[in-house]
Amino acid sequence: MRPKIVAANWKMNKDLSEGIQLASEVIRRIQKAKKRSVQVVLIPPFIHLTTINRLAERENIYVGAQNCHEQALGAFTGEISALMLRSVGVTFVIIGHSERRQYFKEDDTLLAKKISIALKHDLQPIFCCGESLQIREEEKPIAFVKKQLSASLFHLSQQEMSKVAIAYEPVWAIGTGKTATPEQAQIMHEAIRMQIREKYGKETADNIPILYGGSCNEQNAKKLFACPDVDGGLIGGASLQAASFISIVNSF
Length: 252
Ligand code: 13P
What we know:
By secondary structure, the protein is α/β, with parallel strands linked by helices. The protein has one domain: TIM Barrel (Alpha-Beta Barrel), CATH 3.20.20. The chain contains twelve helices and eight strands. It is globular, with a radius of gyration of 17 Å. The two termini are 15 Å apart. 1,3-dihydroxyacetonephosphate binds next to β8.
């Protein structure tokens, strides 16, 4: 059975003491909730990873990074590699977030390289895909997302693909307060799973977690997570407060 994952993408928010406070509060509330069938992942800015991981690892909470470079090491001033992330206890890495695609011009080919290097260094990529409002209005979102997947993931072997998680994040829903309806999310998630099934077979497709991201919050998480092909969430704004994040974690 595929895992359920709820991941907190803090983006470029929280200084170190705020980050420690937020992570500690998430941990405290999770301990209280006791039973947990969901993998919880905290994805702070790079420089907080070591500190947050020390807090989180004792409680079986994973940490993830928001990005990595496509090379393992070398003269790339200002960059962070998958090898380095692994060395400080990182488990997950977001690859292809729409903000990286938009502001840092990351394209499908570069993302394919990042996926490969992440897997090589034992990180689980959370590969983000999703269409803009214009593409949705032109009624071609499924074809668009399928192309993102085939361009950046389909060079992987079946064994590699089985280690990937996918996050469907419609760009028009990110940080806008507009959420995909459960029906819209389910249609896309099912299409993604079918595409993986066609390429890699039923077992791989059935086991791959597909998360939803885009204004997911404590009000709408339950209905989204009830969809058969929605296996969790990648949460932005609502992950910056422990209470709302935990309430999303508890929505399964
Ligand atoms: P919001 O939850 O703030 O819409 O952000 C979603 C997201 O981009 C998570 O990666």
